[in-house]
Amino acid sequence: MQRAVVVGGGVAGLAAARDLADAGCDVLLLEATDRAGGKLRRGEVAGVTVDVGAEAMIHRRPEGVDLARELGLPIVHPTGATSRVWTRGALRRLPRTLMGAPLDLEELEETGILGEEGMVRARHQLLPQPDDDASVGELVATRFGDEVVDRLVEPLLGGVYAGQARHISATAAVPQLVDLIARPEFVLPPAPADAAPVFAGVDGGMWRLAEALEADLHGRPGVEVRHGATVTAIRRTNGGFAVGTSDGEETAELLVVATPAPPAARLLSDVAPAAADELLQVCYASVALVTLAFRADDGGVREALDVGASGFLVPPVDGRQVKASTFSFAKWAWVRAAGEEQGLLVLRTSLGRFGEQATLQVPDDQLVQASLADLAAATGLTATPVDAVVQRWGGGLPQYWVGHLDRVARVRAAVARVPGLAVCGAAYDGVGVPATIGSAHRAVAELLGARSS
Ligand SMILES: Cc1cc2nc3c(=O)[nH]c(=O)nc-3n(C[C@H](O)[C@H](O)[C@H](O)COP(=O)(O)OP(=O)(O)OC[C@H]3O[C@@H](n4cnc5c(N)ncnc54)[C@H](O)[C@@H]3O)c2cc1C
């Protein structure tokens, strides 16, 4: 039986460990912190258990929902409540877009998101020249103008990457946009009547996916998940790898490095230096989530918050502190039900974009106050929350800048030259949970494929 070590117990590492165990390997998963799950994490606000990391997954990509179903978790979908854009002094309806690129200019005009000049430019569409790899911002600005990028693309892309539209690669982040943006008609094919919902979640929270994965691993012979085990160095040996940890050394024939790019770069510097050099170039954005619980019957709370929206996005040009707020009680039936038992409405704000680390380097209560000030200005909410929880995600989101796909190809080529080694996680094939799980499946398939060939 082959012995495999997986470094990092986020959803990628957990999924890779499961695939390796399914293939009959002995598996040791080494996780630096005292819990597995990485950015899938539960927290408690006023006694209500909620996600304080990822809260949803794209349904179209099957890896997330498939894995959740295999683990017996109930899949749910967001309610029909839609998000607003808080810009130019009002909460405005979000028109139909492809990651901020408008699909209907009449509808866009009705929302009032753009000023008059911005609207004139959006109508004066110019077709971008084909480019091997342009940024999302560049492509959309060429076609629809800068204001569409500033007030629509930035907040939508910021919600996923906490990044800047004029840096993020369209090919890596929104490949569908690359196909459509240079066509005379900017339209999406109509969705079939029985189209599945775009997003899914797990009833009770996405954190359950990580906990169920770990529980599944614990139940298997020959599999160990070790917490508090930071991997400090990796070197090659005759039969595979020596893996140095905070409290000793492990050996492995197969090794999967499933950490974010900065630690992966450090760990691979000896065994795959070319991959390490590339991984060092991947930048990360830090973000913080502030989860707030309000008493539903406090004066004005329902009137301000319970208005049928699932929250709002904030364009950076508007100069606010929060970049988005998710009214979790309105977006997820399970959050509403869990809060209602205690007469609470639970929501969260998110702060921090790439390059704005300084705004997060303040005490927790300042992040709470900043969130309350923006919520008050956006919705008129004046109530004091009964509880607030701040979860920081320093270096939380990799930035898929122009050139990212080529960089990932070079990383994979360098890693493939080392027999028995593979990498996976959010730095490679997409930052979303399903893509991250997909990268784990791919890493293990490549390892096992190489072993049998
Ligand atoms: C605030 C936030 C909200 C998000 N919301 C969503 C969402 O709603 N939907 C969605 O699809 N995606 C979302 N994402 C993205 C998604 O959650 C992540 O990209 C994904 O969970 C990353 O999984 P991972 O396993 O690659 O990495 P991580 O979750 O970062 O896990 C890596 C693990 O490696 C461990 N580690 C690091 N170094 C070492 C070492 N030397 N030795 C041992 N262990 C080590 C870490 O402790 C960590 O547990 C969100 C991300 C953030 C930050």
UniProtKB/TrEMBL annotation:
It comes from the Bacteria. Residues 11-448 form the Amine oxidase domain. This is Protoporphyrinogen/coproporphyrinogen oxidase. It comes from Nocardioides vastitatis.
